[in-house]
Structures are given as C-alpha cells and as structure tokens.
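SAMPLE LOG
Freezer: B-3
Tube label: C17
Construct: single chain, 238 aa
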Amino acid sequence: MKAIIFAAGLGTRFKPWTEHHPKALAPVNGKSLLQRNVEYFRQYGITDVVVNVHHFADQIEDAVAAADGWGSTVHISDERGEVLETGGGLMKARPFLDGDTPFLSINADILTDLDLNKLVRFHREQQALISFAVTNRKTSRYFLFDEENRLCGWENTITGERRISIDKPHLVQRAYSCVVVYEPAVFDLISRQGKFSLVDVYLDLAAGHRIMAMDHSGDRFVDVGKPESIIVAEKLFQ
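STRUCTURE (predicted):
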C-alpha cells in the first residue's frame, strides 16, 4: 500500500513556529511531526509515501533528503505555485498513488496510535469507497452518520451550517480523525478541480457511494493544531 501525508498547509494557528518553518517539521520529543507519521506508516509496512509541500517547501525537502526518508521512499508533490487544500492536494498527487490497491492519507499534524491494519480491514469488510477514522471527542465540526456508520452529512455547531447528503433521522455526530483509506477508483469520481477540501469530496460522493466511519475512541490521538498542543503530544508520544 501507499500513503500521502498532507503537509502543505500554512499553519496559521501554529504561529510563531510557522513564521519561519512548516508545521510538519515542528518537533515532538525530538522528532518532527512529519518523521513521526512516516515512521507510523512504516510500522504497518507502508514505505512508499508522498508528501505534498507548499509552505517552506525547501525545508521539508531538505529534511527528507537529510534523513534519507527515515527509511522509507518519500516522494514530494510540489504545490509551491498554489496550496490546493486536501482534496486538490490528493488529486495532484494522483500519479504517486494510482494503482489497483487501496491507499491511505493522514494530515501531518495528526498523531495517533490507531491500528491501521484494523482500519484497512474495516474498509474491505464494508466494501467502501472511502473509510475514515472517527472518535466521540468534542469539536465544533462533526460528520453525521446513520446507524450503520455510513456518512450522511456534516455540521458546524458554531455557525449552524449543515450539509446533508443522505437525509435520515437520528444521525450521530462523530469527530474526524484525518486518517483515511481510499479505493483508487475515487480519482475518477472526483469532479472538482483546483483548490478544494476532502470534506467536499466526501459529501459530494456520500449519496452514491459507501463512505464509512470506524470509531477508534480510546486510542491515543492529538490534533497538533496549535503550539500548546505540543505539550499534550509530548506527554502521549515519546
């Protein structure tokens, strides 16, 4: 299997670090977020990884080269011209990911000990187009699922915005963990171009395709979105 690590973001919530560095190189107990996620995939035998770059792209390229990919084959998907968000970034990286087997993605600022074998097994058992990990933690933006854990919609509890792809009663809120398995067929189903989010992709495709969620509440999980999150991460990940 192959994987992509999304590392192109500007990291505006992670200042002052991101005024001079990409967030993906922020250290947690001496290892960058990027290194930790390359090694995370490597634990599961996934050693062919693409990293998309934009913000301080040269620093990421230099770090990968200096570490010889931390033992993996790390390709660079160059978004220096324009940061494309996760959906656009996925499409630009298609040449690295295309094939006849599922592939995975993670955001560079996510640290977790979710069992990827379990997620891939769930994905195959559900015969899904896309499967992603979720938890029952509190957040302001939730995906909405039916009783079978199929994606039906999304909502922002602060703004009140709600997007429904499958209208069903009693939808359940779950928080997105940004760890995803895809069938390669997804590339031909994405109609959006340029800069767009994977959230839009999921909601575009949910009505016609099985997009499923696996709850991994109880696993270690940190969204290293702000500098203070590093303290939490360093307590959980040595």
